[in-house]
Design a protein that fits this description.
mainly alpha, 73% helix, globular
Length: 240
C-alpha cells in the first residue's frame, strides 16, 4: 500500500498541467531575464540584489507549493502513515519530498540556480559553498513549509490561512524592505539571506563566518524536524 501510494506521488511530480505550461512560457523566461539583467550588480557589497533574487525564489516556491495544493486539496500529510508499520525516517522523506515538490518547483530551482551560477562566474570553491548552502537551506525551507502545512491542516483543514502565512506575510516583508529603502535587510532574512551572506563571505575567504552560517542552517533544520516529529506523530496515549 505504501509503495503504491508513493508511486502515485512520484507520478504527480512529473505531471504536466496548465500551471506548468504558463510556468515554461512566462515565468521561467522572465526570471532568467531578470537575473541576467542584474548580473553586474548581484555580488556588490553596496546593494543586496543577490539576496533579493533568492528571497523572490523562495516566495515563488511558496506560491507553487501552497497554491496548487489549495486548489487541488493535494496535501500529503504524514498522518496518512500513522496506521502503517513504517519507519519515521521514511515518513519524513515522503512528507518533505513528495508533499512539497512537483515539476514546477524542480524547474524553478534548477533554472534559477543555474542562471545565477552562469551569470556570476563564481570560482569553483565559492560555487561549492553556494550549492551546499542552497541545499541545506532548501531542506530547511521545505521542513518549515511542511510544519506550517501540518499545523494549519490540523487546525483549519484546507484553509486559505496557509497562503496568508506562507506567501502574503513574506510579500509584506518584501514591501516593507522596498518602501523603507533598507535593501541590506535582505542579507539577514532567514533562508535566502543566509545563502547570499554565506556566498559573499566565501568570496571574502571568511571561513569562520561561513561555518557559522552553515551551523545556523543545519541547527534550524534539526529544530524543524523536531517540530515536525512533535506535530505529525501521535503519542502512545493518543493511539486507539
Amino acid at each position: 500500500m505504501i509503495i503504491k501510494y508513493s508511486w502515485m506521488q512520484y507520478k504527480k511530480i512529473i505531471t504536466t498541467n496548465k500551471l506548468l505550461v504558463a510556468h515554461l512560457i512566462v515565468f521561467l523566461p522572465g526570471m532568467v531575464y531578470f537575473i541576467y539583467y542584474m548580473k553586474n550588480s548581484l555580488l556588490l557589497k553596496s546593494e543586496s540584489y543577490f539576496s533579493m533574487i533568492l528571497f523572490f525564489i523562495f516566495i515563488f516556491q511558496s506560491i507553487l507549493i501552497v497554491g496548487k495544493r489549495l486548489k487541488n486539496e493535494d496535501f500529503f500529510s504524514s498522518n496518512c502513515f500513522t496506521i502503517f508499520p513504517i519507519k519515521k525516517v521514511n515518513i519524513f522523506f515522503y512528507t518533505l519530498i513528495l508533499g512539497n515538490i512537483d515539476l514546477n518547483v524542480i524547474l524553478l530551482i534548477f533554472v534559477s540556480v543555474g542562471t545565477i551560477l552562469y551569470v556570476t562566474s563564481l570560482s569553483l570553491p565559492v560555487t561549492v559553498v553556494f550549492l551546499l548552502m542552497f541545499l541545506v537551506c532548501e531542506i530547511t525551507y521545505l521542513i518549515y513549509m511542511m510544519v506550517t502545512i501540518e499545523i494549519m491542516m490540523q487546525r483549519y483543514r484546507n484553509s486559505k490561512n496557509i497562503f496568508i502565512i506562507t506567501v502574503l506575510l513574506f510579500l509584506l516583508i518584501q514591501q516593507f524592505t522596498f518602501l523603507s529603502d533598507k535593501f541590506y535587510l535582505f542579507d539577514f532574512y532567514p533562508i535566502s539571506g543566509w545563502i547570499s551572506s554565506t556566498t559573499k563571505l566565501a568570496l571574502q575567504k571568511d571561513i569562520s563566518r561561513v561555518l557559522i552560517y552553515f551551523g545556523v542552517a543545519v541547527f534550524s533544520s534539526i529544530i524543524g524536524l523536531f517540530l515536525l516529529n512533535k506535530i505529525s506523530f501521535p503519542r502512545k496515549n493518543n493511539v486507539f
